[in-house]
Design goal:
The protein is of the alpha+beta class. Helix content is 21%, strand content 23%. Strands 5, 6, 7, 8, 9, 10, 11, 12, 13 and 14 form a ten-stranded antiparallel β-sheet that branches. A two-stranded antiparallel ribbon has the order 1-2.
Length: 271
């Protein structure tokens, strides 16, 4: 009976070990699957590094896009003037130089900052000729960028797979389902400032500069039909939809304002 009890305990111990080993293997398999699967948009949600070392194919616009920065600030911090030429091996600063005060602080006078006496309210009278509602801000129409004079159109047809959620990886824009080779069109007129596959997770990518404040991005294309420096018109075919850098045919579309992602659905017309 002693031998029988010992054997039962041994079998129980072996079963527990087998269960633990199975769970460990399952965990490793899931981890490997996540690591080897398609990676999307390794742009930074946290603070970027101090510098970026320029690689072949990099542009100032692409670097700024990757780190969610305004290209004009990056150019100013590094003393780079238009047309913003950079070269492999160059070290690009991603923060303001040390010791430089921000404009908002440098413009504050010392005595104003120390004063605790509240300023007197200045009373202004409304002119009798003023129209009712004058001075009120009117909400921008959907499809028109506020204060930018831009009108937007959908970059391709298809249902929305993923919505905008800037704090989540891969959701700095929207994903639109489509079939391979489907036309991808410029959402607004502008100039192509990036066309290539240098940004990990975006596949074959196009970035268009529309004005000094707004950029748009078109990722995972199968084929690019424009190159850097090209001028494009609204609705022009710029690429063929594909699945580069992702797991299925789709278009990842972003709008950036001053380097920061904004929800494209607030700009695109209703459909």
């Amino acid at each position: 009976m002693g031998d029988s009890g010992t054997g039962g305990g041994g079998h129980h111990l072996v079963s527990v070990r087998a269960l633990i080993a199975g769970l460990l293997l399952l965990w490793l398999a899931v981890g490997a699957g996540c690591a080897s699967g398609p990676r999307h948009a390794r742009t930074y949600t946290a603070a970027p590094p101090a510098y970026h070392i320029v690689q072949r194919g990099d542009t100032l616009y692409g670097i700024s896009f990757r780190y969610n920065l305004d290209y004009r600030r990056v150019a100013r911090w590094n003393g780079i003037r238009p047309p913003y030429r950079i070269y492999p091996g160059q070290r690009i600063r991603l923060y303001p130089p040390a010791g430089k005060a921000s404009p908002s602080r440098s413009s504050v006078k010392p005595h104003t900052a120390r004063s605790r006496v509240p300023a007197k309210k200045k009373i202004t009278r409304t002119s009798a000729k003023a129209k009712p509602g004058a001075g009120r801000s009117t909400p921008a129409k959907r499809g028109v960028a506020t204060g930018a004079g831009l009108s937007w159109s959908w970059p391709t047809e298809g249902r929305i797979l993923r919505s905008f959620k800037p704090d989540s990886p891969g959701r700095k824009g929207i994903d639109i389902a489509g079939r391979p080779g489907q036309p991808v069109r410029a959402a607004a007129a502008g100039r192509v400032v990036y066309a290539g596959s240098g940004l990990r997770g975006y596949g074959a990518l196009i970035i268009i500069k529309h004005n000094k404040n707004y950029l748009s991005a078109y990722a995972h294309n199968r084929r690019l039909l424009v190159k850097e420096g090209d001028r494009v018109r609204k609705g022009q075919k710029i690429a063929e939809l594909g699945a580069t850098g992702t797991d299925r045919p789709k278009l990842h579309f972003e709008i950036r304002r001053n380097g920061r992602p904004v929800d494209p659905l607030k700009f695109l017309p209703r459909r």
